[in-house]
Every structure is written in C-alpha cells, then in structure tokens.
C-alpha cells in the first residue's frame, strides 16, 4: 500500500512538473515571438511532442523511484520499465522530427515563392522538402532500430543476419527495383533542377503546375483542378515541357484567318491600343504579322509576352476577343467569307455524239494489234534435231 501511495504521489509530481514546465516554456516563447517569428513557429511545431516526451520521461522516473527492484514481489517491473523505454524512444523520435522540420522551415522562410521572380526560391524549396522527407525517414529508421535493440536476443540474431546479408540484399534489390529507382529519381529531380515546386509543365498533353515532389512520385496540379500523379522515374526517362525552367516569362501566339480585304496596318495600331490597356502584357514583345496568304484567306499572327503562364493564357484570350470585336465593329469586310462560283445549268451545252469505237481498245483498223492478243500462238517449224 505504501508503494502504491508513493507511486501516486510521484505521478502527481510528474504531472505538476510537466504542467509548470509547459506553461513557463509557452510564456517564454510567446514573449520572444513578439519580436522573432521563429519562436512562434517553434511553439506550434514542438509544443505537443515536447510535453509528451517530458511527461513520459517523468512518469518513467516516478515509476522506477517508487517501485523497488524486487523480482519476487514485483515481477512485472521490468516489463513496465521496458515499455517506458520503448515509448520514450518513440516520442523522442517524434520530437526530433518536429525540430528538424522547424529548422528546415526556418531556412525556407527566407525564400518566398509568392513573388514574380521566384525561380531560385522554388529550387531551394524543392531541395529542402526532399531533405525533410529523407531526414524524417532516417530518424524513424533509427528509432525502430533502437526499439528492436531493446529486446533480448536481437544481438544474438545479428550474426546470422549479417551472414545472410549478401543474399538478402540481392533478393531485396530485385524485389524493390522499381521502388528504389523512384527513390533515386526523386533525389535526382530535387538536386538536378529539371523540375521544381510550382513549375509550369506539360506532361501527357496536360498543362499544370508541380504541386508536390516526393521520393517516389510527383503530383501535378492540372489546370482544371485535377491531380496528375506520376512516378519520379517518368521525369527522368520521358521528355516533357517545362515552361518555367529558367524564367517565368513566356511568349504566346494568337492566330486568325481573315479575308484578303483585312488591313494589317490598322490592325497593328489597334493591337498597340489593346496592349496598352492591360497589365497582363509585360511590355517586352508585341508583333503582328501576316504569316500566310493562300486560297481564300490570309493568316494573321500576333505575338505577345507575359509574366507567367496563367497571365499569358489570359492575355491571349483578351487579345483575341478585342480583335474580333474590333473587326466586327470597324472592318466587317475583313471577316472570313466563302466564295462560290455560280453556274447557269439551264443554258444548252453542245455535245458531240460518241460511239463505242471511240473508246474501244481494239477499234476497227487495228486488226494487227488485235491479232497479237487473239490470234493463234506461233510455234517454231524447225525440227528438234536441227535446233
């Protein structure tokens, strides 16, 4: 009964110390967060894992200090201590992962992607996100290994495991060939810079943005809010379009088929007025040219540049709409038309009569030609002995 009372008192002290430490740490971080942003981020990231880790460690100490090490009276003591050890390793891994993520977020804070020129920031963000996943994976593997080492017999099994490591590695390599290929491809994508988070790409004839890059797959956010999930090896083995590889500025074209009566000079002046009225144009390139003139229409092409891919799409639509409205309003004769040749079918047409001989292959007067195909087969009259 004394041991139970001591255990309850120790647990109460552990809870009290955990609560006081959590409140003090929260007040300190909140005070620092008024001047430094990192304190608020650390408080949100590590609040729950820190409290849990502290509570588990204090409960472990309370239990070991209250229950004596007597195998006869308390045979279950070692099992409970072993359970505390496993839980401590698990929550410690949780706390370490959150601290690692906090440090990576602290570095990412300086690289913003909500600015016009964000190519460098997107490259750094992509690499940091891959490093974050690798860090978490390594910490979890270490924690699992540490937990396994707490069980008796694991050390003895280590020798047999090492003896068969060669065979196991070969079998595992063959079984996980595609998975390992995706992992290495994901690392290659992160550090080669071929794609980055928020890049505009065209894959499988689908236009979208790189939303997420993991160790095994890449998520592409398509223009219609669908998600296109592709393995990492796709981007290392299949050609694709990256519209923002070096910069986000793009050049777009608007083509229109119009009548020959269109006036390119006046149309070019109207294009200048259209572009001056919009912020979608970045004022780098504006060109209007007649690129083709065949049959019944001429092809007019407009080239213009914009800051990024979404703005370029809107700019192309805006130019097309404004030019169509201008042509309808001021130059309706330039609208494309279909020219049809009307023929009077009621007028008599002179026609000479034809006979069957006109189109015959063997007509009269061609007896020699006909004989070549219809006459008897000519044979030689020379005896065989004289040949």
Give a quick set of tags describing it:
three-stranded antiparallel β-sheet, single chain, 11 helices, five-stranded antiparallel β-sheet, elongated, 387 residues
**SS-based structural class?**
alpha+beta
Q: Beta-strand percentage?
A: 5-15%
The string of secondary-structure elements, in order, is HHHHHHHEEEEHEEHEEHH
Strand order of the largest sheet: 4-3-2-1-5
Distance between the first and last residues' Cα? 137 Å
Alpha carbon gyration radius: 41 Å
Count of helical regions: 11
Overall pLDDT level: 77
Low-confidence spans: pLDDT under 50, at least 5 residues? none
Largest sheet: 5 strands, antiparallel
Shape: elongated
Written overview of the protein:
The chain is an alpha+beta fold and 387 residues long. It contains eleven helices and eight strands. The protein is elongated. The protein starts with a helix and ends in a 13-residue tail after the last helix. The model has no long low-confidence stretch (mean pLDDT 77).
Kindly summarize this structure in a few lines.
The chain has helices at residues 2-33, 37-66, 77-108, 119-149, 154-163, 165-175, 177-192, 234-237, 264-276, 309-330, 367-374; strands at 200-203, 206-213, 217-222, 227-231, 241-242, 250-258, 281-294, 297-306.
Set down the secondary structure blueprint.
Layout: H1 2-33, H2 37-66, H3 77-108, H4 119-149, H5 154-163, H6 165-175, H7 177-192, E1 200-203, E2 206-213, E3 217-222, E4 227-231, H8 234-237, E5 241-242, E6 250-258, H9 264-276, E7 281-294, E8 297-306, H10 309-330, H11 367-374
Antiparallel strand pairs: 1-2, 1-5, 2-3, 3-4, 6-8, 7-8
